[in-house]
Amino acid sequence: MPSIATNSRVDRDELLAFLRPRNRAILLTHRPSGDVQMSPVTFGTSAEGAVLV
Fold first, then answer.
1. In a 10 Å sphere around its CB, with 0-12 CB exposed, 13-18 middle and 19+ buried, how is residue 25 labelled?
2. What are residue 34's phi and psi, to 5 degrees?
């Protein structure tokens, strides 16, 4: 079972193995004021390994 909430470095294959069974995430952006905006999003991965939001 993959670890969750760690700061471990992973390679691209490990990242995709973690992401593929999931489809929900939180997208974090910064507003012009510097405040943080967190938005729930759905995502997927392409056959080539791109993450699609």
1. middle
2. 95, -10
Q: How far apart are CA 20 and CA 48, in angstroms?
A: 12
Please identify which residue in the block is written with the tokens 């691209």: 12
From first CA to last CA, the distance across the chain in angstroms is 24
The 10s digit of each residue's pLDDT in 10-53 is 999 999 999 999 999 999 999 999 999 999 999 999 999 999 99
| pTM for this model (two decimals) | 0.70
Q: Is the distance from CB of 50 to CB of 40 less than 8 angstroms?
A: no
